[in-house]
Amino acid sequence: MKAIKAFIFFGIFALYGSMVNSQSLTATQVLVKSYDQQLGETSISEMKMRIVRPEYEREVSLKNWSYGKEYYIIYIMSPARDKGQVFLKRENNMWNWLPKINRMMKIPPSMMSASWMGSDFSNNDLVRERTFINDYESEFKEGENKGGFDCYSIELIPKPEAPVVWSKVQVWIDKKHFNVVEAKYYNELDELVTHQVASDFKDFDGRYLPAKLTMIPVKKPGQRTEMETISMSFDEPSVSKSMFSIQNMKRIKP
């Protein structure tokens, strides 16, 4: 009986300690855990982007490589007119290799808010993990249930003089898996501009992640962009930091 009571006591103590540890996380630490959940040390993924407009729909297939939170390569596999384009992200800098015209282009800060590949994602969305950590102050708001998940609610406000696009961002992060379930982006007039929703959660190489992200511009009816993950693997030994160079962009193959 004493052994049973001791087992129950230590079980409750461990559970309580886990709850305290979870509640003691800062908003910034929750964001960092979320990005770690999505990327790991390295990752390789294949995705399909579906751009929906009232007049037409367009699909783009791509392959991604990542190293930590600072280095990404995106290779465009289709459609044929865009095939072979490569995007490189190193920290807050981005480059685009255009093989059909044999041109390397560094994406300037003035173009970071521009549409990426004609979608509702911007160039800035591709580097926002680092931006959210470094350029915004984060604060917990009252938690909510979103999409069936018990979530942290975090409000992000830009630091003074931070070179950012959004005047406020609100994210909802699943307390169990640390996935961003929803995010809302506001302009300087405190108007909601874009709403991002995650859905279709699945197991990818042992991680529970959304298979679909939908970006919805709220003032453009009938318009959205869906980013679907086809496959994803983590901590791949074939991915090294040396891959993420301007010189290597011209040699990348899917």
Structure, explained:
There is one protein chain. The chain starts with a helix and ends in a 5-residue tail after the last helix. The N terminus is likely disordered. It is α+β, with helices and mostly antiparallel strands. A 13-stranded antiparallel β-sheet has the order 6-5-4-3-2-1-13-12-11-10-9-8-7.
Produce a short descriptive summary.
With 254 residues, this protein is an alpha+beta fold. The protein has helices at 2-23, 27-39, 128-135, 246-249, and strands spanning 42-52, 57-67, 71-78, 86-90, 93-98, 103-107, 136-146, 149-158, 168-174, 180-186, 192-204, 207-217, 224-234.
Quick tags:
254 residues; alpha+beta; outer membrane lipoprotein receptor (LolB), chain A; 13-stranded antiparallel β-sheet; 4 helices; globular; TP_0789-like
Strand order of the largest sheet: 6-5-4-3-2-1-13-12-11-10-9-8-7
What sequence of helices (H) and strands (E) makes up the elements? HHEEEEEEHEEEEEEEH
Q: Label the structural class.
A: alpha+beta
Radius of gyration: 20 Å
Fourth-tier CATH superfamily name: Lipoprotein localisation LolA/LolB/LppX
Pfam families: LolA_like (PF17131)
Domain Uncharacterized protein TP-0789: 68-251
Q: What layout of secondary structure does this protein have?
A:
Elements: H1 2-23, H2 27-39, E1 42-52, E2 57-67, E3 71-78, E4 86-90, E5 93-98, E6 103-107, H3 128-135, E7 136-146, E8 149-158, E9 168-174, E10 180-186, E11 192-204, E12 207-217, E13 224-234, H4 246-249
Antiparallel strand pairs: 1-2, 1-13, 2-3, 3-4, 4-5, 5-6, 7-8, 8-9, 9-10, 10-11, 11-12, 12-13
